[in-house]
Amino acid sequence: MSEQVLPFYLVCDESYSMQGPPLDAINQELPLIYQEIASNPVVADRARLGIIGFSSTAEVLLPLADLNDVHSIPQLSPRGTTSYGAAFSLLKRTIEQDIAGLKQAGHAPYRPTVFFLTDGLPTDDWHGEHKDLVSRDFRAHPTILAFGFGDVDPTTLQQVATFRAFIANGDMSPTQALREFARQLLNSVVQSAVASSSNPSGTAQLIIPDQVPGYTVLAPDPL
Amino acid sequence: MEQVQEHEAPSMTETAHGFPQPLVIGREPRVISQPGPLPAVRRPDTEIDGAALPGLEVRAASIRGDAHRYYGTVRQDAMGLWHDGDRTLLACVADGLGSKEGSHVGAATACEVAQAYLSTLPIAPDHVTDARDFVDGIAGEIRNRADERGMPPEELSTTFLAARVQEMPEASVHRAVLVRVGDCMAWHLHRGVWTPCFGEDDADTGVSTSATHALPQDIEHAEVGYADLYPGDMLLLCTDGLAKPMRGPQVSSQLASWWSRPPSLPEFFWQMSFRAKTHDDDRTAVCIWRV
């Protein structure tokens, strides 16, 4: 049976600099995000959330799955350096496979949305992998929202984002800022799913806040 | 690893013994099919209609989607039937765009006023090529309705599909001319096989989009289609709340089987209430059988 699917990916920096409060906060929030999604049947029916962690390498921590099939949530753990290239390249392969799989099963997937979370400068040259991921030639190219805090470079964040970038402005502790990030991710999944259910004929499916407490909004790099 | 709490579905209202629940096609949706809070805008959850006309049987239903029921929001689909008492039937369906505040008004207006502009659709020759006057007249009425409410016209945005079905003299055929703006669909069911009356927008773009043309703004995007109905044939007009699940062969073949003949009104409502995961939008269909 053909289902309408809204794919979301959390792509999370697991480099050593994320150790402590940032990863602890994300690990605490993730199960709550899934619980919240599951508590709203309209959202749970159509939203799918996958998790990719990256440091020196990248791995799929939780495949894009229907909530019916998610019974446990992985924990993010600090390791290695910060290879954006590994993250973007795995993300592209994962999206390609997921979209193809969904279509093969007869489903109608919408354009994926990526929440990219990082706290530092990439240690590799990642522009080629990023270009492949967001290129119009890649038909399922995702909409990317980039969230940065810690030592992150605003210009890098703007280059990563295709839609909007958010940079922590120091008003909040890292724990609070990460909780806020989690809340935004959840709201976006819920509101986008609701909008697409009552509005298959409408315009934008993706509902993203203009402002996020504790973060400064940056436009994506026009290049 | 932390455990995720299993979601507990609210209990379904008890039904009378032996009364069949709506059919679930594919995986069981989490969204329950039941009314929720009463919408602030008063408009019935469901409309059912039907008619027996010379050579034609009509069944029609416009049903609020389970997502709208869950949130207690109003049905934005609308439908309309009109017969001139002689040889001409007009049937309409419309789907108000969900993001717009007055879209249910736009959809209802389009279906209500369409018959006043029927004469602007050329009758002969067989093929109408220009439906602009027809949709322009309807768009004008939607703009007027927006003015009365002090709303910008695009707040009443709605897709629209109309079919004029005429009995041809001295022939067993009923000829349908169809006009649409946006993603409503029309199919001709002939010997169990569905044929779309408009080119389907199935361009493989990689991912689905949800953009559509709508009235009152997109009058230049009016499309025209045709169908000749012979005894036993059926013409289906529907909003995307039915068109989207119909892309699944399980749904389209089930409907073809159910609708090989006109069902009773309660049967039609039950059939139209089938549940399919993620297909929780308003659903409207007008079925016109050539009998």
TrEMBL record, chain A:
Gene3D superfamilies: von Willebrand factor, type A domain. Residues 7-189 form the VWFA domain. Pfam families: VWA. This is Uncharacterized conserved protein YegL, contains vWA domain of TerY type. It comes from Microbispora rosea.
Automatic annotation (TrEMBL), chain B:
Residues 1-22 are annotated as: Disordered. It comes from the Bacteria. Residues 64-258 form the PPM-type phosphatase domain. This is Serine/threonine protein phosphatase PrpC. The lineage of its organism: Bacteria, Bacillati, Actinomycetota, Actinomycetes, Streptosporangiales.
